[in-house]
Design a protein that fits this description.
There is one protein chain. The chain has 21 helices and 20 strands. By secondary structure, the protein is α+β, with helices and mostly antiparallel strands. Helix 15 packs antiparallel against helix 16. The radius of gyration is 36 Å and the shape is elongated.
């Protein structure tokens, strides 16, 4: 015992060292594998701390002195001494919250250097085995005495079933199903009861399993029978796949062959509510908590999915899932007619009214801080509180339990759970309730192998890493190309396409001037720059509604960039006014290097700067040598004072538009300006034969 010593914090985390600053933050993603406990300095007996571990993973434990303020921030202060059966829990916790919240604002204590001797022992307890008596009881409940290999394993007080993986030829295509019994029959449904949550685990590999979308689908079998208007999700479409629409097949197969159990028919006739709370997490199984939470160690999170008996299918999509062991747990909750929605809302109203003082202590930043004063004024009036509808009541409750608004959101979640259970426990009645569910664990490219009606699924392999993604069309956005908030109208699409294509016609004057001044090579390059730019934008900008592709868009895009860079190069060579014997090799030199640079990275800034800087050096050298030999100004004064500055200004405007002002929304306007400015700059910069004569 040490009266003056601070308490000792015990922290455990998987895959990482448990830092105090991570524990003190309120980020659920960082706290998902942290278990924290405070050991009091006045405790002299043996202390036992239980925490769950992850399979095949290093775990790091840390012991350190903690101050009182740190205990409050970590959410560990006083919680270990409370039990849900305490009659005065609500009043006690409310006073504790006020006391502990005042300690948060106190500065961190300056603790002296102290040493503490301790002895620590770590014991590992295996999952609960299923004894032969339990196995016989399970067979008796199922109405059969035959041995069945398909039996669950008790793990963290939940039933876990084994899954069997089936992998397909394509990337990211696999699924998991229940293991077959001794007769080779795969169970079609999974039976859930209110006595214990059920779940299963499955492993994802490092490369071929993480580039697609992991999908978990679940549905109550009786819901499929009673609801004849159910619209099933579209099947997984894959032309090269052998399995077809596995999700739709499993959820609608044998609909007419499966009879409803008598207790389910009774539940349905009594208008009882059946709800499944689904928890899906990497590395750690969650315990389903009614009505909408999952418990991971000491942390409460929102459930991954809530499935009611009126729902057809509950879907959970995980894009680019991490490798490792995933856990899915499902808890069944059945409520009698007395626990209707109004009873639940009344319980929430009582909780909100009891803890209304928290609305005055909202911290910033808080999403609901602006509405906190309005909520507070309404809650103080009993008539206003009773008149709040469902949505408003739930908003106030979520505001009180938001981790961005209150530092004690863990305590508030625990308070609400205790209060709600106390308020409704006399109504949670439907014993021996069970239901059969159909589920599917599968992986596919993009979202179920497709990208809606306005997208295409592509596979990419950058640097040896393979992944799939949707490429959307016609302005649709989102992971599966279903977000239509920024979809343009047909008229705007047509206008953008015409603007991008017709703006290239401004190159005709440049071509005419080049040919009239006997710059034949330059005129040919300008023509093909205009030609490929026109047809590239005609293929790319029409959103497949007004598009026309002469050849593959990849070839048109390459030629558009390449001819544009080549036009810049031949213009600079023409401005240098060197002999034909040197101009021809320079043209070939630039053509080869620009083709290499365009293929390497056509949108790199150096692909534009390299020919420009080289051309400027060539022009400066040529003009300097000419002036030194003739002792006269070269080129003419009018070209140097009028056309050259004007052309340089146009080029600078075009480069600024291309590099800094161009966005996806204004692309058709800014890029059209780029076409016009670059064509006009050629008219100014391409020298005439008269301009290239030396003047005194």
């Amino acid at each position: 015992m040490c009266v003056h010593c601070p308490d000792v914090g015990f922290y455990v985390q998987a895959n990482a060292y448990p830092e105090e600053n991570i524990v003190s933050e309120h980020s659920e993603d960082e706290q998902k594998n942290i278990h924290s406990e405070v050991i009091r300095s006045n405790q002299t007996k043996e202390i036992s701390i239980q925490f769950c571990v992850q399979p095949s993973t290093w775990h790091y434990a840390k012991l350190t002195f903690v101050s009182k303020a740190e205990e409050v921030k970590n959410g560990t202060g006083k919680k270990a001494t409370l039990t849900e059966g305490d009659a005065a829990t609500d009043r006690f916790l409310e006073s504790e919250l006020r006391l502990l919240k005042k300690l948060i604002d106190k500065p961190k204590l300056d603790l002296p250097d102290q040493n503490l001797s301790y002895a620590m022992q770590i014991d590992f307890h295996l999952p609960e085995p299923i004894t032969e008596l339990k196995r016989k009881n399970m067979h008796a409940e199922n109405g059969t005495n035959n041995f069945n290999a398909w039996t669950p394993t008790r793990f963290r007080h939940m039933n876990f079933y084994s899954l069997l993986r089936q992998t397909y030829r394509e990337f990211f295509m696999f699924d998991y199903d229940l293991k077959p019994d001794e007769n080779g029959t795969v169970p079609g449904v999974l039976n859930l009861t209110t006595e214990s949550a059920s779940g299963f685990s499955f492993d994802l590999g490092e490369v071929n399993d993480i580039g697609g979308t992991l999908t978990f689908a679940v549905s109550m079998k009786h819901a499929l029978h009673t609801n004849s208007d159910i619209k099933m999700p579209p099947p997984i479409l894959s032309p090269a796949s052998d399995r077809g629409g596995i999700l739709a097949e499993k959820l609608i197969s044998d609909r007419e062959d499966t009879e409803l159990p008598e207790d389910q028919i009774l539940i349905k006739s009594n208008n009882n509510s059946i709800q499944i709370v689904v928890c899906m997490q990497l590395g750690e199984p969650g315990v389903p908590i009614w009505p909408d939470k999952c418990r991971y160690g000491q942390r409460l999170r929102h459930a991954s999915k809530i499935v009611n008996n009126t729902d057809s299918v509950g879907l959970i999509h995980v894009p680019f899932p991490e490798s490792g062991r995933w856990y899915v747990t499902m808890g069944l909750y059945c409520h009698g007619p007395k626990t209707s929605r109004s009873t639940t809302i009344d319980s929430i109203r009582q909780f909100v009214g009891h803890h209304k003082n928290l609305l005055n202590e909202m911290r910033s930043p808080c999403p609901c801080a602006s509405a906190a004063k309005e909520y507070d004024a309404c809650i103080k009036s009993k008539d206003c509180l009773d008149g709040m509808n469902e949505t408003e009541t739930l908003k106030v409750k979520e505001c009180m339990m938001d981790y961005q608004c209150t530092s004690n959101y863990d305590d508030m979640a625990r308070l609400f759970e205790i209060h709600h259970k106390t308020a409704t426990e006399e109504y949670v009645a439907v014993n021996n309730c069970n239901t059969s569910v159909v589920f599917s664990v599968s992986s596919s490219p993009c979202v179920a192998g497709r990208c809606g009606n306005f997208g295409r699924c592509y596979h990419y392999m950058p640097g040896g890493f393979v992944f799939s993604t949707c490429v959307c069309m016609k302005g649709y956005r989102g992971w599966d190309c279903t977000e239509h908030s920024q979809v343009p109208t047909n008229m705007s699409i047509l206008l953008a396409s015409l603007l991008l294509t017709l703006s290239n016609l401004i190159f005709f004057p440049s071509i005419y001037v080049a040919l009239s001044r006997r710059y034949f090579t330059e005129g040919v390059i300008y023509f093909f720059a205009m030609f490929f730019s026109t047809f590239y934008h005609a293929c790319d900008s029409g959103e497949e509604e007004y598009s026309f592709c002469l050849v593959k868009i990849g070839g048109l895009q390459f030629c558009d960039f390449y001819c544009g860079l080549l036009a810049i190069w031949v213009t600079l060579v023409a401005m240098a006014d060197i002999r034909q014997q040197l101009a021809a090799p320079l043209h070939m030199f630039g053509a080869i290097l620009l083709a290499f640079g365009t293929e390497l990275n056509k949108q790199s800034l150096w692909v534009f700067l390299a020919p420009a800087l080289t051309g400027i050096c060539l022009i400066s050298t040529s003009w300097g040598i000419r002036c030194a030999k003739t002792r006269k100004m070269y080129p003419s004064r009018r070209y140097l004072t009028v056309w050259l500055p004007f052309g340089i200004c146009l080029v600078c405007v075009g480069l600024v538009c291309y590099a800094f002002l161009q966005t996806k929304q204004n692309y058709h306007i800014i890029h059209s300006i780029w076409h016009i400015v670059m064509a006009l700059s050629i008219l100014c910069l391409l020298p005439s034969r008269i301009s290239c004569t030396a003047k005194c």
